[in-house]
Amino acid sequence: MIKDRVEAGKLLADKIHLIDNHDFLVLAIPRGGVIVGHEIAKKINCKLDIAISKKITPSDNPEFAIGAITHDGTLFQSNYWKNYANDPNLNEELSKKKLEVKRRLEDYRGNSEYKITDKKIILVDDGIATGSTVFAILNWLTKQNVKEIILAIPVMPASIFELMKKNVSSIVSLEVPDEFAAVGQFYKSFDQVSDEEVIKIFKKYRN
């Protein structure tokens, strides 16, 4: 059981062994991932930035993710995508979620411009359930021609771990359970993180 996101970040940082932190960037997924990423960035003395994607859901089932999209339209399509490819509302959903990602990036970091070509990335979240949002960001990072991606995630299902490891250089994790219901079940404290908290942390890296 992990105490909270701060402890998760510290424990992950202890497991990340870099020969040289040059060119490494911690890229955290808001909101909870920023708490975890902040602890990692402090420990390994790296910059922290933010990456966001939003889940794509069909109009008749707004809780069911069939994929995810980033600010520039990079998509991840799950195995269920084809079942909804002809949904007349899908294009509207894609446009709406893409705009939401851009808006959140503006709120958090002021713009949606990145200069990360040839960077080595440590991608961080506070946990993974289905993986859609992380897969979309990984697809986007591939387009940015980054050198290396280390995925640092406190907890994820074993089935997702097997899929993720094919898309990254390495994975650092604390819990990889076979039986999984929700990320929060592996934390003693898993309170919601506010936008204000994310912005406060991120300001420390934008000066």
Main sheet makeup: 5 strands, parallel
The CATH topology of the largest domain is given as Rossmann fold
Output the number of helix runs.
6
Q: Calculate the terminal CA-CA distance, rounded to whole Å.
A: 35 Å
Order of strands, widest sheet: 2-1-6-7-8
Helices and strands, in order, run as HEHEEEEHEHEHEH
Q: Which segments are poorly predicted (pLDDT under 50) over 5 or more consecutive residues? A: none
- The CATH class name of the largest domain reads Alpha Beta
Q: Would you count the extended β strands for me?
A: 8
Mean of residue pLDDT values? 94
Q: How many discrete structural domains?
A: 2
Shape: globular
How large a portion of the residues is in β-strands, by DSSP E? 15-25%
What is the CATH architecture assignment of the largest domain? 3-Layer(aba) Sandwich
Backbone structural class: alpha/beta
